[in-house]
Amino acid sequence: MKLLMNVQRRLWLLRRQRSTTSTIAKAHDNESSEPALTNTQLDELERNVTLRQHKNNIPLIRSLLAEVRKGNQQKQQELVAEIGQLPNSTHHRLLSYGNEPHELAQYKHRQLDSETSKKEFSELARSLNLFRMDHLGNYTGHKSYYLTGQLAMLEQAIIQFALQSVTKHGFKLMSVPDILPPEVIESCGMRTDGERTQVYKLDTGECLSGTSEMALAGYFAGKHLSEEQLPLKVTAVSRCYRAETSGLQEEKGIYRVHQFTKVEMFAICSPQQSEAELEEFKNIEVALFKELGLNFRLLDMPPCELGAPAYQKYDIEAWMPGRQMWGEISSCSNCTDYQAKRLDIKYKRNSDGQLLHVHTINGTATAIPRLLIALLESYQNGDIIEIPKVLRPFMDDQKVITKNKRIPETKLVKFIKSNQ
Question: pTM of the prediction?
């Protein structure tokens, strides 16, 4: 972990070196300065990249580093960019997991139904006239959807319930922008360019945010905090935009869509606090889904599922009886100083006054579409949906959801213009 934490420091030293080879060599030999990356250290970085199944750009980094050491300063910027694409280090606990998550716990609050009699969300919501996803491609694009009537009310009830839950734990509510500069999104660990990017980019060069974590992290960019301010915990409700698609049958409907609403938790803390903060995030999420009465399981994710920024990560999957599958509804991650170094977020340590990079934690309190799937499929009783007790105060104490008869049912009609 210390190796990756020092990469940015080493790059800074490289940028300070002059353009001649002799000056670079002299700087490497100087005991008072930090040495450049060695082959042994690059080997360690490459093992971590391979473990996480990340794009292996270490060979390119070796080549660029050799060019810079020869005095080719034109390669410095490219070297900095490539090292910036390296993933975070990996918690030692995960090294033996292979490619499979470790199930830590399973929570059962309802009878698991092994039969196929339960309706899938889309079929159920359509039968209640509360949902539309078909025939929207011409004007809203594919993977779009409408929630109407009581289902739209249920969405808002979930949001308010989640906010009530997290603010009780000291999270301060913020309202954040959905349009962000690409630098902020890249600094949080998500690529904005390339064929496989999940980010929508506007003509102005700015991007649509994939999660409010990015805006919350960007808010603190360049800030230097006191140790007394830590941990600093905030939460936000936002629309999230993802360009990702999927052709998998189990991910049909609103399971994977281009935009959705999410309640996000975010914390800035000291390195000594980050593991405890991650556990708090995990416990908040577990408690929230227990109150909703879902069947779900807690997973400790393997290195290949951490993405670029996470040092360790927990996922929560709910049982979706209509689909007969476990589906991810939440996660939380400890990103250590990965985001803080890129955004220059620091704190002043009381003991010696030194400025150090903070650690950042993020977690999903609720991601609406998948939580709606889990709730409706779990609480269905024929053509009636029971509303979980904790959500009823946010729906005027309504106990069930029934068919919506106020909004006309939508049907596709083809208009053929006759030749006159």
Answer: 0.87
